[in-house]
Amino acid sequence: MKLLLLHSDYLEVEAREKAVDSAEDYDEGKKRVEECLVVFNALEEGDEKDLDYVIEKADEEIRDILDQVNTDKVVIYPWVHLTSKPGNLDDAMRSQKLLEEKLSDLEVTRTPFGWYKEFEIHVKGHPLSELSREIRPGEDDKKPAKEREGEEEFSRFIILDEEGNEYEVDKHKWKESDILNEDTRNSENLKNLVRCEIGEGEEKGKPPHIEIMRDLELVDYCDVSDAGHFKWHPKGVLLKELILDYQDELVKEYGAFKIENPLLYRLNDERINQLIGEFQEKIYNWEEDGEKLAMRPASDPGQFPYAQNLSISYKHLPLKQYEETSCFRKEQRGELSGLRRVRNFTMTDTHTFTANEERAKKEFQELCDICKDLMNSIISKGDWVLEWEGTVDYWKENKDWIKKVTRKMGKPAFIQLSEERSHYYSMKADFEAIHPSGIETQVSTVQMDLVNGERFDITYTGEDNREHPCTILHCSTFGSIERTLTFLLEDAVRNGKMNATLPLWLSPIQVRIIPVSPEKHMKYSEELAEKLEEERIRVDIDDRNESVGRRIRRSESEWVPYTLVVGDDELEDDTLSVRRRETGKEVDMEAEELTEEVKEKIKDYPFRPLPLPQKLSERPKFIG
RNA sequence: GCCUCGGUAGCUCAGCUCGGCCGGAGCGGCGCCCUCGUAAGGCGCAGGCCGUGGGUUCAAAUCCCACCCGGGGCUCCA
């Protein structure tokens, strides 16, 4: 039996005239059924051998779909043309009645058998709305619910441990790998990564960072923009700027020059067309004065043409070009999720142009070192692992080198290999942060690109005075700042919200002073604040007319790492009562001690001043 | 794009089943009392034509229709 199942808004059907002599009697007029599953069906040759089984199976399939589309109205509609080998008429008519009986506990409508019918149908557009099934007697195994195009991109999976030892992984038995079941943080994180990549996928539900980013007044939805575009409050802007400051330091050390390209590109330029092509449906584009324009979905559309126009000699190599840019991708509506998947994000991207692959490997290593530092300093010392992706051939030829790089990162790696090169890179290393919930966030990536130099005519003049294509390395230290922030926030609540905290250098407010009595202790508080400020510490004063308890609570809910209460006792001797958020306990220390402690923790990190009025009484509430 | 849930005060939400006696609470804000000692002190005040537009009705936050916007899921992406 062949079945065609259509989840429909409505079906209207009217019997016109008998198509066969044996057609059943029928004299009802036009019928209309709304919000139903229309079951077109045709009995096939051979089905009569075990009609009961066929009907039973059909019943099963129909109920399965009903369940999924969440309706209980069925229309049974015989349609012989679904098959090229129809069963005989009598059996076919019988099958209709049997099916109706089988489904009789539901709201079933049957259209007459053997008539020419006129019908109008409106089928819904969701993925389950159009399904076909085939049932054959004697075939017991159920067809898969969805027949996916099972194109297997990767053919080989390998794990490297921190020492660079190699373990082959079976896609279907990955859980059994000993290396994934060791009782270490690395092993556990790697297991989570492998699960996300080839296992049952990511954990679902509302991501925890959404509530946090709003509670901390960092980032918020923006009701006047497109979905997936966010507004940033002062503290959020500060956070982003500090991270980018840090990034700038890394770039400077690496020796790259910083450039800035437009956000908007002309699609009728062949290069742009090629570069944006991969993003196809995902670009924001429109027409302006007859010209097709698009917002940049990545840094390449700006950076490649930029590099093309440079005059590069072998003496300039390796040439390092860095850009930090806003990218726009029109992700599907339903795919957007907090800051994790957005339509506008900031990316930091370096391209290194080298003379040849050998030289590129050296640079690759150096870029990985940078990414490692970044992971360890900004993201999380513990909870990240490596992922390599590339071709089987590249792996075979460069195994030792890949192992060497991995060893230097001090993290285990998961390697996915495909027979054919599917992207421009032959091999890439992704730096994946692992959330407390087990999901991954790709932070950095370093990619070995052996083809685009030639393809986009990015060349250097060699000693031989001839043009040679560059081997290009792509390194995005932050695939997206937004995602990085997502991880930071979720990582912060790894052990619960109680003592959750951002790294001190990223805390928008590092020290809060609470004068017990605003009038009496204000002067001292202000002097203290000034002293701390001189040491480049972000400090503010909660001078609101509230009880001490209430102000402590506010400070804690804003994740302020150090809270000082200033009262009569402090005026007398110079000891401060310091509440450390990390421990939730308060200790007495002198101003100098506190300064030293804070400075020690933030010594080499960027600093930016408080982006808000110092006194809380002068500060608006941004959210809630 | 599809499915689904939602849109009520600055924020979080209750009220809608069964139309009227419904426009509320907490937080936040403001004011007053208190001059406070480590995660919510007390009292008071101001904030909303209940997403938009239609419809039904003597009467709509509540019922119906359309649209807009947001969350989640699917698909997609990786």
Characterize the structure shown.
The protein is α+β, with helices and mostly antiparallel strands and 624 residues long. It has three domains: 2-134, D-tyrosyl-tRNA(Tyr) deacylase (D-tyrosyl-trna(Tyr) Deacylase, Chain: A, 3-Layer(bba) Sandwich); 156-389 and 396-489, Bira Bifunctional Protein, Domain 2 (BirA Bifunctional Protein, domain 2), CATH 3.30.930.10; 504-618, Rossmann fold, CATH 3.40.50.800. Helix content is 31%, strand content 28%. The strands form six sheets. A ten-stranded mixed β-sheet has the order 8-7-18-17-19-20-23-16-15-11. Strands 1, 2, 3, 4, 5 and 6 form a six-stranded mixed β-sheet that branches. A five-stranded mixed β-sheet has the order 25-24-26-27-28. Helix 1 crosses helix 2 and helix 4 (209-215) packs across helix 11 (481-492). The longest helix has 23 residues, at 357-379. The chain is globular. 39% of the residues are buried. Mean pLDDT is 86; it is low at 140-152. The protein binds one RNA strand of 78 nucleotides through helix 12 and helix 13.
Topology:
Blueprint: E1 2-18, E2 31-42, H1 51-69, E3 73-78, H2 89-102, E4 107-110, E5 115-123, E6 130-134, E7 156-160, E8 166-169, H3 185-198, H4 209-215, E9 219-221, E10 230-232, H5 234-254, E11 257-259, E12 264-266, H6 270-277, E13 285-288, E14 291-295, H7 300-308, E15 319-328, E16 344-354, H8 357-379, E17 384-391, H9 392-409, E18 413-418, E19 425-434, E20 440-449, H10 452-455, E21 459-461, E22 467-469, E23 471-478, H11 481-492, E24 511-515, H12 518-534, E25 539-541, H13 548-557, E26 562-566, H14 568-572, E27 575-580, E28 585-590, H15 591-602
Parallel strand pairs: 2-3, 3-4, 11-15, 17-18, 24-25, 24-26
Antiparallel strand pairs: 1-2, 1-5, 1-6, 7-8, 7-18, 9-10, 12-14, 13-14, 15-16, 16-23, 17-19, 19-20, 20-23, 21-22, 26-27, 27-28
Helix pairs in contact: 1-2, 4-11, 5-8, 8-9
The structure holds one RNA strand of 78 nucleotides.
